[in-house]
Amino acid sequence: MAKCLSFTGSADFLYRSFFSYSGLRSVKTEFPDGTTMHCWVPKSQKLSKPNLLLVHGFGANAMWQYGDLLHHLMPRFNIYVPDLLFFGESKTVRPERTEAFQAQCVMRLMEAHGVHKMSLVGISYGGFVGYSMAAQFPEAVEKVVLCCTGVVLEEKDLREGLFEVANLDEAASILMPQTPEKLRELIRFAFARPLIKGVPSYFLSDYIDVFCTDHVEQKKELIQALIKDRQLSKVPRIQQPTLIIWGEQDRIFPKELGYRLEKHIGDNAKLVMIKNAGHAVNIEKPKEFAKNLKSFLIDSRLSPRSKNPSHRQRHFLIWPTP
């Protein structure tokens, strides 16, 4: 009897109901090349509102990663929350696994929904995809928020010990846990203060069954494509105003990558380092995360590094000092 009850599945149902209650609807879009993209889109698009794309990372699905932000953002934006390929209900028969291809698919999806201008938020892997969208489609992407996104990592960083994992196989085994022990390890990596002690293995196994058993090989290929032959010199510099949010105690993408990313983008970027938070900063510090998002996204008059000192002070008054 107990095995019939999935706490993770029940929570997922509640998130789905909440998204629908918040004014979004679930839509699948099929493309002729064998690609299917799922997305939460507005039930009623308001032309007076700007469009905002929320791109998820690895881990639980997009609803779990952005559910707590909806009530902050829905009044101000037309919200779009897609499933990336091999997550949720999105898939493809195409062989490409790069973030550039993911970005192209998301852009096709947005165009299919009649969206040609947008700002975007990308968490972790979703930030890789969002960054690529900004680089490939600069006329469509207006503002960018990157959260704990190691876009500027290099393959040599893995060999030189920047990360706590030794190789890609070890990274994949943590990011796609198949046992309760590996899920505990992922939680310890993702949170500055992981509340994992005493959690029964049943709950962890249930989470794995719901979120970590589909498209395992394809997701490994996504991780491999991120790092293989990656060099900073090959990463384009995006031109959009960009907010970078990082957890100071991030153990998956160390904070050094946040400083490196800010330097790489240049004057259009601003880094906010949030204390007492790890990789899952959007979950550990949801109020601070939302506050920074709203400050950056809603004040459309200012770029991250306004040359007017009074403007700069007003724009960053609530932001923590890196």
Automatic annotation (TrEMBL):
Record keywords: Hydrolase
Coiled coil: none
Entry keyword Hydrolase: yes
GO molecular function terms noted in the UniProt entry: hydrolase activity
SUPFAM superfamilies in alphabetical order: alpha/beta-Hydrolases
Record-linked Pfam families: Abhydrolase_1 (PF00561)
Presence of the UniProt keyword Hydrolase in the record: yes
Residue ranges of domain AB hydrolase-1 in the record: 50-286
InterPro entries recorded: AB_hydrolase_1, AB_hydrolase_fold, Epox_hydrolase-like, Meta-cleavage_hydrolase
Protein name: Hydrolase YugF
